[in-house]
Structures are given as structure tokens and as C-alpha cells.
Design brief:
elongated; mainly alpha; about 0% strand; Vanadium-containing Chloroperoxidase, domain 1; about 220 residues; 7 helices
Length: about 220
């Protein structure tokens, strides 16, 4: 299993520079004039589903509500399920935090220009070590968040894996449609979210408190 994940991760790393050189600019340019108004509006609507604050707040609120309920209903028959749910929220929170930290570090180090910075959508325009948001295209934070969430959801509801993967793909690609990111940014951000979550899952799944043993490996 670890060998398989290593090969998949390596393939993602190798694919990113190829996308930067050969695919990013023509794909982004293709969305300049030929995208219907309704399609742009749809993508601008769904793209904010991947804002990280929704999931940080949701995970914290879920943990708080469960903790309060268990404090006053300590003998509840649903305690095992609630403890499990609390562990899931903690896993989601940890995954978002760790993958987000990795992503923000790379963003500031690389300093890649967003597609809209220049009319030509130059995919190789960089300003390393910058705090300028316009040069924080690589990797995509939205993609990192939605793929982290998708992984966590798969651990809880493995039968719905295709739905969660499709959701992450559609929402991630919306960032390309609205010219906030290149395709390689999406691949990099999604890879960070998914593989960091997979690494954390592998570390905690056998512990009693984070026992997700009844679900399948995503």
C-alpha cells in the first residue's frame, strides 16, 4: 500500500512541471471568450464551497456540540458513535491545519503569478518569497481544502467515494475557469490536501481514539 501511494505521489510531482510548460497557458486562454455566462456564474458560485473557514468552523463546532452533549448525557447509548464522530472532526481539523501549513509555506516560497496578473496568462512568472496575494497562485488553497475534506468524508462514508471525488474535481476546476489558478496549481493543491490527509490517516487510524477501522482505506 505504501509503495502504491509513493508511486502515485511521485507521478503527481512529475506531472506538475509538464502542466506548467505545456498545458497551463493554452488551457487558461481557452476560457477567455468561449465560456457561456451561465457557466462562469456557476463556477463562481461553487468555488467558495472550498473556502477553508467553513470547515475549520464546522469541525470546531461539531467537537464543541458533542463535548457539551456528552458532558450532560454521559450515559447516552449513543456515546460510542458520538466519540467516533468527535474523533472524525479532530482528524478533519488536523488534516486541514497540517496540509494548510504545508501549502502556505510553498505559496510564499514559490510566488507564482495568478493567471489574471498579465493578459498573456504567463504560467512561468514568479516572484519568490512574497506576501503579495497576486503571486500566491501555486499551489491552490481551495483545491487543498476541498481534497482534504473529500478524503475525510471518504473515511466516514466510503460507499460515497465517487461522489466526493467528483465534487472535489468539479470545485477544484472552477478555480481554472474563473482564472484564479492554473491547472498545475490545482493538481499541486489537491495533492497536498489528499496525500497529507492520507499520511495522517495512516498515523492515527489504529489508535483507539481515532479508530476508523470499520471504514475502508480511501
Amino acid at each position: 500500500m505504501k509503495i502504491r501511494w509513493t508511486w502515485i505521489f511521485s507521478a503527481h510531482i512529475l506531472l506538475i512541471p509538464l502542466l506548467m510548460v505545456f498545458i497551463d497557458e493554452p488551457l487558461t486562454t481557452s476560457f477567455n471568450d468561449r465560456k457561456p455566462t451561465w457557466y462562469v456564474a456557476f463556477n463562481r458560485t461553487i468555488t467558495d464551497v472550498a473556502l477553508g473557514q467553513w470547515y475549520f468552523a464546522g469541525a470546531l463546532l461539531g467537537m464543541l456540540l458533542i463535548a457539551v452533549f456528552l458532558k450532560f448525557r454521559s450515559q447516552s447509548l449513543r456515546r460510542p458513535q458520538l466519540e467516533r464522530a468527535k474523533a472524525w472532526f479532530q482528524f478533519l481539523l488536523a488534516s486541514l491545519f497540517v496540509s494548510g501549513t504545508v501549502l502556505l509555506t510553498i505559496k510564499h516560497l514559490v510566488g507564482r503569478a495568478r493567471p489574471f496578473v498579465v493578459p498573456e496568462h504567463d504560467p512561468l512568472l514568479f516572484k519568490p518569497l512574497t506576501a503579495d496575494w497576486n503571486f500566491h497562485s501555486f499551489p491552490s488553497g481551495h483545491a487543498q481544502v476541498i481534497w482534504t475534506v473529500a478524503f475525510a468524508l471518504v473515511t466516514a462514508f466510503p460507499k460515497w467515494k465517487p461522489v466526493f471525488i467528483l465534487m472535489a474535481l468539479v470545485i477544484s476546476f472552477s478555480r481554472v475557469v474563473i482564472h484564479d489558478h492554473f491547472l498545475s496549481d490545482i493538481l499541486a493543491g489537491g495533492s497536498i490536501g489528499y496525500f497529507v490527509s492520507a499520511w495522517l490517516y495512516d498515523k492515527v487510524k489504529t489508535r483507539l481514539y481515532f479508530n476508523f477501522a470499520s471504514t475502508s482505506q480511501p
